[in-house]
Amino acid sequence: MAGVDRAERGRLLEEYVAVLRQAWTGEPFTWRGRTIRVTPKPASPPMILIGGSTEKAARRAARLGCGFFPAIGDPHLAEVYQAECRRLRFDGGFVHLPSGPGFVHVSDDPERDWGRIAPHALYDAQTYASWQTPGQRSSVHVEAKSADELRRSGVYRVVTPEECVALARETGQVLLHPLMGGLPPALAWEGLERFAAKVLPRLRGV
User: CA-CA distance, 2 to 31, in Å (whole number)?
Assistant: First the structure.
């Protein structure tokens, strides 16, 4: 959509990670013929996680000195990343394998809110599916033609606070993704505030 050659995405990612790190120093630097200074300087260096679902992506994350957040919960990718970190003597690495749904909304009435969320979720799922290349692996890839199919996949979940607590304890994480698929901000805030008030206090120390 932006006229960027997909074959260049690896090289561009590496270039942009370097640019971000220079920008976060708060000092002037030159990039593509321009002098740039970004302020205010962050209080601490921001964390960068590199995604992907291939061994090449895992090695790239280690080479760039970043954390690794693959698109699929494949333990082999974690092993490749950790081995590359050891080879490069990068001791600040960590990997986070995805687990559980790709979207969670906390609701006091899941049936009502699924009806409000479903059109956005279906748009989101179908858009991402249309981008996938052959061999691409992703734990949130769903080939759904209807909201009912999408709901049955379990990737997009609208749950009660009690169900969210159980999900967090089962999977070790909850991905909220509040503005997924153009979700109205007011509806997103409802889910976030309910999570903060009715779920988070029950997870502290878990």
Answer: 20
**Distance from chain centroid for Cα 110:** 24
User: Within 10 A of 19 (CB to CB), how many other CB atoms are there?
Assistant: 15
Closest CA to 135 of 56, 54, 78: 54
Q: What is the pairing mode between strands 34-36 and 29-31? A: antiparallel
Place of tokens 């971000």: 20
Give the whole-angstrom CA distance, residue 59 versus residue 51.
11
Listed by start position, the domains of the chain span: 6-88, 103-203
Strand partners, 67: 49
Which of 75, 64, 79 minimizes the C-alpha distance to 98?
75
Per-residue tokens: 41: 């300087």
How far apart (Å, rounded) are the C-alpha atoms in residues 184 and 119?
11
pLDDT tens profile 15-40: 999 999 999 999 999 999 999 999 99
Please tell me the distance from the alpha carbon of residue 154 to that of residue 163, in angstroms, as a whole number.
13
